[in-house]
């Protein structure tokens, strides 16, 4: 009966999101309001030519895998709102996966539903998906990978992981923790035997299977689109993001440096050096927390987003989808939790104020935006430290029960 109630709540959430899409459609028609992300516009504009061999990279703003545009062909042949409905469906399916993962991690059905509601009823993923942004699809693929790993279905986990890395490059930050998790079977005791012993364990049947399948999925999809669209498919989908220098204002602490050095001969070097903090911190968290894979993925993603060269609000979904899996083991008081939440929102609010005056009033507020970005990075770092300090990993809880 509880499982039925859980499924009913998920269906209700889907209906609610779909109604929201319909309301937005009506408002767009009646008030002439644009409520669609530019990426979806790009996909819609290219989709009619897809079957005639045209390249999506003829548009200078297209920076995604062609697979996404192929998936959105029904936008042309069925309804222009297909993409939004697809992404809303991905949001709800992500809630289903979260529910099953939470149950596998020991929560009751009622408790799992309550934590899933933090994702399903969150206005940020609802707003992003109903605008036509594909981040919900990535969340679904990543959570499917975690669920299959929890169930020890390594072949399917590898398939979803390879597909997620093909869609966007950021899930590559999960490669090391996944490898260590599979090799140690998620046991804290194996982690404490030393780094060298962990590296020895990397060569086992399950991990070789995972690497082979994930690598094959990524390789063959990438090769197929390379054969169709040439070097542009590799450069615009992957390599562009390594050398990207976005001078438009965003939450990144590097944005002002990139803006000032855009024409400098050192611009490319500075852009590549900015990856070093991400690389070092992701390596450390992977080695330290891989035994609790959802927690490790949450930290790696939060670090990647916070220290990235480009950081926008939609990137927050990359780590917020892990939050329902983290909160049950987080030992924070209500006062502390509310305080950290307000700190996160305050950092965004302080950034948005000078950004508004720059974008809409034309005032030169670049320095204030940069300082607000630095403050937001400090806030995020402080929040991550507090989460690490008050988190009880699954393996530690299990060990205490056995004692």
TrEMBL record:
GO terms for cellular component: endoplasmic reticulum membrane; glycosylphosphatidylinositol-mannosyltransferase I complex. Catalytic subunit of the glycosylphosphatidylinositol-mannosyltransferase I complex which catalyzes the transfer of the first mannose, via an alpha-1,4 bond from a dolichol-phosphate-mannose (Dol-P-Man) to the glucosaminyl acyl phosphatidylinositol (GlcN-(acyl)PI) intermediate to generate alpha-D-Man-(1->4)-alpha-D-GlcN-(1->6)-(1-radyl,2-acyl-sn-glycero-3-phospho)-2-acyl-inositol and participates in the sixth step of the glycosylphosphatidylinositol-anchor biosynthesis. The lineage of its organism: Eukaryota, Metazoa, Chordata, Craniata, Vertebrata. Keywords: Endoplasmic reticulum, Glycosyltransferase, GPI-anchor biosynthesis, Membrane, Transferase, Transmembrane, Transmembrane helix. One of its GO terms (biological process) is GPI anchor biosynthetic process. One of its GO terms (molecular function) is GPI mannosyltransferase activity. It is a multi-pass membrane protein. Belongs to the PIGM family. It is found in: Endoplasmic reticulum membrane. Pathway: Glycolipid biosynthesis; glycosylphosphatidylinositol-anchor biosynthesis. The chain crosses the membrane at residues 137-163, 169-186, 207-231, 251-273, 280-307, 313-330, 337-357, 369-392. It is an enzyme of class 2 (transferase). Its EC number is 2.4.1.-. This is GPI alpha-1,4-mannosyltransferase I, catalytic subunit. It holds the Pfam family Mannosyl_trans.
């Amino acid at each position: 009966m509880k499982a039925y109630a859980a499924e009913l709540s998920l269906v209700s959430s889907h209906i609610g999101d779909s109604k929201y899409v319909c309301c937005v459609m009506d408002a767009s028609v009646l008030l002439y309001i644009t409520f669609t992300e530019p990426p979806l516009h790009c996909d819609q504009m290219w989709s009619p030519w897809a079957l005639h061999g045209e390249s999506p990279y003829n548009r200078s703003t297209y920076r995604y895998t062609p697979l996404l545009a192929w998936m959105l062909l029904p936008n042309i042949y069925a309804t222009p709102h297909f993409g939004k409905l697809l992404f809303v469906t991905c949001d709800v399916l992500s809630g289903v996966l979260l529910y099953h993962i939470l149950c596998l991690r020991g929560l009751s059905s009622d408790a799992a539903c309550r934590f899933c509601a933090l994702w399903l009823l969150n206005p940020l993923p609802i707003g992003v998906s109903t605008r036509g942004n594909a981040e919900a699809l990535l969340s679904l693929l990543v959570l499917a990978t975690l669920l299959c790993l929890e169930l020890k279905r390594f072949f399917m986990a590898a398939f979803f992981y390879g597909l997620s890395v093909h869609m966007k490059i950021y899930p590559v930050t999960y490669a090391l923790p996944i490898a260590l998790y599979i090799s140690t079977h998620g046991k804290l005791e194996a982690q404490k035997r030393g780094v060298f012993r962990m590296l020895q364990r990397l060569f086992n049947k399950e991990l070789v299977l995972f690497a082979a399948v994930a690598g094959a999925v990524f390789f063959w999809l990438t090769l197929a689109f390379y054969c169709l669209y040439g070097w542009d498919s590799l450069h615009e989908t992957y390599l562009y993001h390594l050398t990207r220098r976005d001078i438009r204002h965003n939450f990144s602490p590097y944005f002002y440096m990139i803006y000032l050095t855009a024409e400098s001969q050192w611009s490319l070097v500075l852009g590549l050096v900015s990856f070093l903090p991400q690389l070092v911190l992701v390596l450390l968290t992977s080695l330290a927390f891989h035994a609790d894979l959802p927690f490790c993925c949450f930290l790696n993603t939060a670090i990647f987003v916070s220290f990235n060269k480009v950081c926008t609000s939609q990137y927050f979904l990359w780590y917020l989808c892990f939050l329902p899996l983290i909160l049950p083991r987080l030992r924070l008081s209500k006062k502390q939790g509310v305080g950290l939440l307000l700190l996160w929102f305050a950092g965004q609010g302080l950034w948005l104020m000078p950004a508004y005056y720059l974008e809409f009033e034309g005032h030169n507020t670049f320095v204030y935006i940069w300082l607000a970005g630095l403050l937001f990075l400090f806030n995020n770092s402080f929040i991550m430290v507090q989460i690490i300090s008050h988190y009880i990993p699954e393996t530690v809880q299990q060990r205490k029960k056995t004692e």
